[in-house]
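Hypothesis: this fold can be encoded by more than one sequence.
Test: take the structure tokens below, design a sequence, compare later.
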């Protein structure tokens, strides 16, 4: 029976990455998890993992007292421990350094058998990994994805704030959806029926009449029925909206954001990108802009059956991805009928609207456009799409307070990270994904 000990007055003096040969002879206290343990009888090699990496601990029956040695022998993989010891040089150890243990505190034991191998030596299926996500995240690769994701997010916030956009938070519990009724989740709101927001669309548009330039980074919900590699029921959207500009202006913003994030990752995440063996996509501005009509022609020329006026199906996107390998590009000037009611039709050709998608290969990363800014036109667009303008009275009334011309976009953060890191499945870049079949963990 192993006794579980308390943290007591032990506090960390060093993270694994601070343990270097130049500190030989220094006594340190480290905490972490047993990543690996090789017991050769009179010598035990332990690899301890903390948030910064790994460190080797070498216990021998000579350098470690009998009680501590026995304790180390009893440890199972992924157990949580604190170790006090002396830093020593050892050329054969990773980074040429190891710890000679003096005292060990066992803070918790992991219970074998573990559902997957956290060293990553034995690969596991995505569902096994997601079922034991916290354990899966102890593997270097998934952990690295989320460290890079953090950098992407920090970079987006910095970029938009420095450009003068104000960060906003709009409601998640709403009375009417903006992105089509089929993907709305219903919630009981006391005696009323309410919905979970699919996007911040209407609110961010309204706020351009106050703050002019706004952005939101938030979780949104879609009751997507289909199980795909790029849809989840909860996702993070990065939304931008700006007064006195058009679609083409916010497309430039999207391009600049892309370059700024690629530069940030290049300067700050080399080590992590190497862990993932990822080469960032090459980008030259301006990105190519194809009109929807050009895209339809491209598909037709490649014997793909598609008609002008249809929304693009998943197979159509796949075919498009084959034509545009490893590049970011835009698709502009969509048929008005396949776009949401708030997108502005072209004055001279109202069957086409000023909408765009920002794409990576076959995957839509962002949708945006110039927005309708006349109350009368918006009411008409709602009716044309079979929606009841009365359900949107709260939104339409704000058009009586002086709505500026405005444009913006919504970018799926998860899809963006997926594209940057060339992952095939959105679930790889989301900590606890929610899909039709997954409500836990
Ligand atoms: P799709 O056609 O791929 O289903 P959409 O056109 O319905 O997407 P938009 O309403 O344009 O999606 O939302 C803007 C962006 O938000 C999308 O380009 C995408 O990156 C992201 N997004 C939308 N729905 C989802 C989802 N279910 N899961 C993950 N990301 C999503
Ligand atoms: Mg879209």
């Amino acid at each position: 029976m192993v006794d579980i000990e308390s943290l007591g007055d032990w506090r960390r003096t060093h993270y694994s990455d601070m343990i270097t040969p130049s500190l030989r002879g220094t006594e340190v206290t480290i905490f972490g998890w047993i990543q690996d343990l090789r017991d050769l009888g009179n010598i035990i090699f332990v690899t301890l993992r903390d948030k910064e990496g790994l460190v080797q601990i070498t216990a021998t029956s000579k350098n470690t007292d009998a009680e501590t040695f026995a304790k180390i022998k009893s440890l199972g993989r992924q157990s949580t421990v604190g170790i006090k010891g002396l830093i020593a040089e050892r050329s054969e150890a990773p980074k040429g350094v190891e710890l000679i243990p003096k005292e060990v505190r066992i803070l918790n034991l992991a219970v074998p058998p573990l559902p997957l191998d956290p060293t990553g030596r034995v690969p596991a299926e995505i569902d096994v990994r997601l079922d034991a996500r916290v354990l899966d995240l102890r593997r270097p690769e998934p952990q690295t994805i989320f460290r890079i994701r953090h950098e992407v997010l920090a970079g987006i916030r910095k970029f938009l704030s420095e450009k003068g956009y104000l960060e906003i938070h709009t409601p998640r519990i709403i009375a009417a959806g903006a992105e089509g009724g089929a993907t709305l989740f219903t919630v009981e709101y006391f005696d009323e029926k309410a919905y979970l927001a699919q996007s911040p669309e209407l609110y961010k548009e309204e706020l351009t009449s106050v703050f002019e330039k706004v952005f939101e980074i938030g979780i949104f919900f879609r009751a997507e029925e289909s199980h795909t590699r790029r849809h989840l029921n909860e996702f993070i959207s990065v939304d931008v909206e700006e007064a006195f500009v058009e679609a083409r202006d916010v497309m430039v913003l999207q391009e600049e954001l892309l370059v700024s994030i690629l530069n940030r990752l290049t300067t700050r995440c080399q080590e992590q990108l190497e862990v993932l063996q990822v080469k960032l996509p090459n980008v030259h501005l301006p990105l190519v802009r194809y009109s929807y009509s050009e895209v339809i022609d491209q598909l037709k020329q490649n014997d793909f059956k598609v008609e002008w006026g249809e929304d693009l199906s998943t197979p159509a996107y796949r075919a498009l991805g084959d034509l545009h390998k490893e590049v970011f590009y835009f698709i502009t000037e969509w048929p008005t009928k396949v776009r949401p009611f708030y997108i502005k039709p072209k004055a001279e050709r109202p069957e086409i609207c000023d909408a765009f998608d920002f794409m990576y290969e076959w995957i839509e990363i962002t949708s945006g456009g110039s927005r309708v800014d006349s109350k009368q036109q918006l009411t008409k667009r709602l009716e044309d799409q079979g929606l009841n303008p009365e359900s949107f009275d709260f939104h339409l009334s704000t058009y009586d307070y002086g709505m500026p011309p405005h444009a913006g976009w919504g970018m799926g953060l998860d899809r963006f990270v997926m594209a940057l890191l060339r992952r095939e499945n959105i679930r790889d870049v989301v900590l606890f994904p929610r899909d039709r079949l997954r409500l836990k963990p």
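The domain at 16-108 is CATH 2.40.50.140 (OB fold (Dihydrolipoamide Acetyltransferase, E2P)). Residues 128 and 354 are 44 Å apart (CA to CA).
Hypothesis status: open.
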